[in-house]
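Let's do one together. I've listed all components of the complex below, 226 residues spread over two lines.
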Amino acid sequence: KQEVTQIPAALSVPEGENLVLNCSFTDSAIYNLQWFRQDPGKGLTSLLLIQSSQREQTSGRLNASLDKSSGRSTLYIAASQPGDSATYLCAVRPEETSGSRLTFGEGTQLTVNP
Amino acid sequence: NAGVTQTPKFQVLKTGQSMTLQCAQDMNHEYMSWYRQDPGMGLRLIHYSVGAGITDQGEVPNGYNVSRSTTEDFPLRLLSAAPSQTSVYFCASSAWLYSPLHFGNGTRLTVT
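Okay, and this is what the predicted structure of the assembly comes out as:
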């Protein structure tokens, strides 16, 4: 059974700092990995999706990398801002098509202090 | 763009009552799904659909029914509410099975 772990559970940084969020998964037979952010009381917003054949994806100040063989992904946030404060979740989709359920980590709660 | 719309936002039920959580998307997405989010458990898949007329069970389907009569709508029915179904429910859709998921803002359900 796939397990997804995100460490740390919470992170507090000063504004302007570059930071890295970690996601690890136990089964490397994944089709893709997706990073989301969740604001309090809201749904999840998709940030980046990395296919298993890709090494990284970039969107603005965000860069996500994937090392499938070692079961790890990182989300790099450059020049953090208070508006980046949210919970960040990663989710992996398996290669097998039956069910095709995403397995989510429990997230890292990020606070960026002005 | 409305995206994925869920109603209601909040609901309180008594044990044994039934209700339907509504989900509608206006992006012509084929794939729709329902998740529940619980502290310490993360998000878990309840049911999903890969197109109109096709539904299947996810990880935690017991106590819930779904149907998909149109591409746009994917309601989730609680047959006889139990306190264990107290949770935040999210509907999500994507263009096809492997594309990025778009989530609604959730329904917070309390069963007393």
